[in-house]
Specification:
By secondary structure, this protein is α/β, with parallel strands linked by helices. It has three domains: 188 residues, 3-Layer(bba) Sandwich (FAD/NAD(P)-binding domain); 97 residues, D-Amino Acid Oxidase, subunit A, domain 2 (D-Amino Acid Oxidase, Chain A, domain 2, 2-Layer Sandwich), CATH 3.30.9; 71 residues. 27% of the residues lie in helices and 31% in strands. The strands form three sheets. Strands 1, 2, 8, 9, 10, 11 and 17 form a seven-stranded mixed sheet that branches. It has a seven-stranded mixed sheet with strand order 6-5-13-14-15-12-16, with helices on both faces. A three-stranded antiparallel sheet has the order 3-7-4. The longest helix has 16 residues. The mean pLDDT is 94. It comes from Actinacidiphila polyblastidii.
């Protein structure tokens, strides 16, 4: 049995971010001994993913970025275009492979950090800490014991909620024959796609150069689509809407992000905690997760180094969660039309202020001003309704 101060289960955004924090070189207090447990190559290891977030230039992961943009665009269903400059923020794109290599440099350096490849079967409290049991790719058993365990694996079930939607998407990394992309502008939402009967849909274009981009089709709805439906939607979007001309698909990514006002438990044992999406880091109204993961893991690392119980903090304020619950309900009931709602926000609110609002960093008076620019009647009706709705397990 191996022993460590900290075991991190899962090498997604949250697991890698916490390892990056805890394994940083330091001349200060003794750094904890850390083991990062990652699933071996196979069905349990997720494929390459893309994470996007906004922050000022000079961030700690800038060296690993694929691209960044200082102009953001939203297109309405009628083609009406809004372009905003979020200065001093930039919209940044980080690929999981580059992030893993960056964290790997710290894990391979001097200190008490190491990696292990295994499928984790059980995590349980034991006297003085917790035990992680699993097996490697050859079936050999693995047992780790640590003072603290942080589980970053996606939840097997979503919590009971008043409203649960899914943000589901499929994207193509494309290379076109002609220079058709403006690589200075990222398209956050392009509503010039057919809207589903329930929820909303939009295109998402992150240009990597004049002839390369990530092009995605995204829906906010109650259920995912079949592979053929995503492919048809992307073919229609790239051909009829964007008019890309001949192109090659270099890579494909697909994902599902929960959008729920359910309450995620951040502690699953005396010495076992949940971080990342499983610990409530996903912003329910947008699906953005990476920036909240950074806040959460930095707080955990600070508590560990200070000798405190490292309970992960709630990544989003009560005010933000309350607003998310109202918006999710309004979208789910159809009281507000998603493309009009988000398109209106980007037209009426300065981009930098809106991004702070979407990340939960705006002030109460800013929230009120932004709220007055939304469909006030339907939103107030939903505000009055939400407290009386029962939380139910999602289907």
């Amino acid at each position: 049995m191996q022993e460590a101060d900290v075991v991190i289960v899962g090498a997604g955004a949250a697991g890698l971010s916490l390892a990056h924090e805890l394994c940083a070189p330091s001349g200060g207090p003794r750094r904890p001994e850390v083991v990062l447990v990652q699933a071996p190559p196979g069905p349990l290891r997720p494929p390459e993913r893309t994470w996007c977030f906004w922050e000022p230039p000079g961030g700690r992961y800038d060296a690993a970025l694929t691209a960044s943009w200082d102009r953001l665009r939203v297109r309405g269903r009628d083609g009406r275009t809004t372009v905003g400059n979020p200065a001093p923020l930039r919209y940044k794109m980080l690929r999981s492979g580059a992030f893993e290599r960056l964290v790997g440099e710290r894990l391979s350096g001097p200190g008490g950090c190491r990696r292990s490849e295994a499928v984790v079967d059980a995590i349980e409290d034991v006297p003085g800490g917790a035990r992680v049991r699993g097996h490697d790719a050859a079936g050999r058993p693995l047992e780790l014991r640590a003072r603290w365990v942080f589980d970053s694996r996606p939840p097997s079930r979503l919590p009971a909620a008043r409203t649960t939607l899914l943000q589901h998407f499929r994207g193509w990394f494309v290379r076109t024959e002609d220079a058709v992309f403006d690589d200075a502008v990222a398209d956050l939402m392009d509503f010039r796609v057919p809207q589903p009967a329930h929820g909303m849909a939009f295109g998402y274009v992150l240009p990597l150069g004049p002839r390369e981009a990530l092009v995605e089709y995204t829906e906010f709805s109650a259920a995912v689509l079949g592979a053929d439906a995503y492919e048809a939607a992307l073919s229609r979007y790239t051909g009829e809407v964007l008019g890309l001309g001949p192109f090659r698909v270099l890579d494909v990514e697909q994902g599902v992000i929960p959008m729920t006002d359910g309450r995620f438990a951040r502690r699953s044992g005396r010495a076992v905690f949940r971080i990342g999406t499983a610990g409530g880091a996903t912003r329910a109204s947008t699906g953005y997760t990476f920036a909240a993961v950074q806040r959460q893991t930095r707080a955990v690392a600070a508590a560990l180094l200070a000798g405190r119980t490292p309970l992960p903090p709630a990544p989003h304020s009560r005010r933000s969660r309350a607003m998310d619950a109202v918006l999710l309900r309004a979208l789910d009931t159809g009281r507000v039309e998603g493309s009009d709602f988000f398109g209106g926000l980007f037209r009426q609110v300065p981009t930098e202020r809106l991004l702070r609002f979407l990340d939960g960093g705006s002030r109460p008076w800013e929230d009120v001003r932004i709220g007055l620019g939304t469909p006030v009647g339907p939103m107030l009706r939903t505000v009055a309704e939400v407290p009386f709705l029962r939380r139910r397990p999602p289907p």
